[in-house]
Amino acid sequence: MIISPKVFYNKCYGKYALPAVNVFTMEQIHGLFRAGEKANAPFIVQMTPVARNYAHSKMLLAMIQAAAKIYPKTKYAIHLDHGTESHALDAIASGLYNSVMIDASHDDFDENVKRTKTIVDRAHKMDVFVEAELGVLSGVEDDISIDEKHAKYTRPEEVVSFVNQTKCDSLAVAVGTSHGAYKFSGGQGIQFDILEKIQEKLPHYPIVLHGGSSVNKEEIVRINKNGGKLLEGAAGVNPKEIVKAITYGVCKINIATDLRLIWTRVHREFFNETPDLFDPIIPGKFYMDAYEKFMLEKFDLLGATGKANLIKI
Length: 313
Hints:
By secondary structure, the chain is α/β, with parallel strands linked by helices. It is 47% helix and 16% strand.
């Protein structure tokens, strides 16, 4: 059942968080919905513009709608991640998304407000939830590439004005995480002093944490053992910090890198260990199983396991 993030966040604030998972393929959608139903956990399935360009938005949406029928007990939202105006307006007009993100975070404050408000005004007429971003994350993911020297933390003194002017429904903040596998190469971790100040200024308002993958070092080792060349200094978000962030109003944790690493590890091991095989169905099944296992563990970590039945609309 598709449910607005507003309903989810009203229930989870300060208690647990929802994983928001980027999908590109059928195997990922199966793994996510299968895990969501098994865990009885709510989740957000999201697509980036790059994913929409790769698989076509109609294909991805059709697979998501099919998964909802295959796994009828699931409760989820469909979200556009890191959209421009054109992406967001297209998603809103389709009538199939109930949440969109407008990412104008690389603009100055006033321009960010202007661009965000334009999307909010259109989205709210269609009962579509809007996530905005204030502050800039570093890192590389899809077509996002931001050098660390250009990254900047969200300024707590700006958040009230931004939310009041734009009327956005949730806010993605820059508090030290980044896109891709090299989130904390400097070892700084999440800046909880910033999160605390944001929560003080926006009490009971849902905060979003992008770049929420943990980057399991064992995955890096196994990938490199089978021909990969990933830097072994890759470091993600400490799971204990993710759990702590929930108490500061973080309701949505974006996850993409971890599941790409699992895809890479599964396929590298499969083709290295069984070089005589070439059927894509075999590693595809392995990946769906590994994906499901990862998501079940993530639902437990975020405290979302068993919460879907508690959400009534």
